[in-house]
Design brief:
The protein is an alpha/beta fold. The chain has eight helices and 17 strands. The strands form three sheets. It has a six-stranded antiparallel β-barrel with strand order 12-15-14-13-16-17. A five-stranded parallel beta sheet has the order 3-2-1-4-7, sandwiched between helices. The model has no long low-confidence stretch (mean pLDDT 91).
Length: 356
């Protein structure tokens, strides 16, 4: 089978390509250039050093290698989306947009133009006939990021590392003699190397006046801030308030107010989801006990769900055990055991107690 393998320059994608090549597939290595980066900082990805490492691995395996310039698509699908969501008072997850949307849409389309039958990545996840499952190594599982990928795209995707642990992957890299065998992990938000999303938003939207008041839930002004997009639900540090302890419990972009309250106000018992991608029919999931996750590697909470039949992409998830700081803009992914049954973006969370 001709397979296009996304090669980031890290150990995971390097081993994915090597294993597929060893299995006898015709592998084409592709490095996706997503943004401008020197790539010289430890722990960051997608720079020049990573492209060179990916090429060295391809040379070692004696497979074709190409660099695809996806900077425009990445800027529109990931970077601009991050800025617009923060400006709307939400907290986005750019890794969902990048891993789950961009790579499995643009890369798949381009791979098919090369005559490939499938694409492959170094993600820790498993797939079977268009169904998505968590990886065998739960500490490395990345199925959370892949919930937007269509079943059709999953049928044409290969995840060679889905049944392995990270130490096993590194052992394979050493066995193949790959230069990436001891390469450290990369950070998730590759285009914000200093992890200062507020600076990134300010530079992208210099005209945005984000300054405003910090208020309690009754509307009493407790202080001021210089940008509501600097805050996220559950945040405690950096508020500069006396008394408390105070936690951010809501962000109102329209009034530029940051609302604070007690930690108990962060416990969500019900979550509304939009833009859901269903791997199983919603009707078949009603009334079943499932498991919900709102952060990569976050705790799984027992839940049941009700789909909104008037809006196919909407759903309401009832949590049997509350989750803390369920944040609009983040993803909620629902599992039936190890299988992802649907996922979408958090629209709203309610702290109302679940019925007995």
């Amino acid at each position: 089978m001709r397979i296009v393998c996304a090669m980031s320059g890290g150990v995971d994608s390097s081993v994915a390509a090597a294993l597929l090549h060893e299995a006898g597939h015709e592998v084409i290595g592709v490095h996706m250039k997503l943004h401008e980066s020197s790539g010289s900082e430890a722990g960051h990805c997608c720079g020049l050093d990573d492209a060179l490492d990916a090429r060295r691995v391809a040379d070692r395996l004696k497979i074709p290698f190409y660099v695809m310039d996806l900077q425009t698509a990445f800027r529109e699908a990931v970077m601009n989306d991050l800025v617009s969501q923060y400006a709307a008072g939400m907290t986005p997850n750019p890794c969902v947009q990048c891993n789950g949307v961009l790579k499995f849409h643009v890369l798949l389309r381009r791979a098919m133009s090369l005559g490939a039958e499938a694409i492959a990545t170094g993600h820790y996840a498993r797939t079977e006939d268009g169904r998505l499952f968590a990886a065998a190594d739960k500490d490395k599982d990345q199925s959370y990021f892949l919930h937007p990928v269509s079943a059709e795209a999953l049928r044409k995707s290969r995840f060679p590392l889905g049944g392995m642990t990270k130490p096993e992957v590194r052992e394979h890299a050493r066995r193949f003699g790959l230069v990436t065998a001891e390469k450290p992990e990369s950070m998730e938000v590759c285009f914000i190397p200093d992890d200062d999303h507020a600076r990134f938003v300010r530079e992208a939207l210099p005209e945005l006046d984000g300054a405003g008041e910090i208020v309690d839930e009754a509307g009493k002004v407790l202080g001021r801030h210089d940008g509501y997009f600097r805050y996220t639900l559950g945040q405690r540090r950096g508020l500069g308030l006396g008394g408390g302890p105070w936690f951010v419990v809501a962000i109102d972009a329209a009034t530029r107010r940051v609302v604070v309250g007690g930690e108990d106000r962060l416990l969500a018992h019900e979550v509304e989801v939009r833009g859901a991608n269903w791997f199983q029919p919603a009707a078949a999931l009603r009334g079943r006990e499932l498991l919900a996750r709102v952060r990569h590697r976050g705790a799984l909470a027992p839940c049941t769900l009700t789909a909104d039949d008037t809006h196919p992409g909407h759903a309401r998830v009832r949590l049997s055990a509350p989750l803390r700081a369920v944040t609009p803009g983040q993803s909620l992914v629902v599992y039936d055991g190890d299988e992802v049954v649907f996922g979408g973006l958090v629209r709203r969370a309610s702290s109302a107690a679940a019925p007995a």
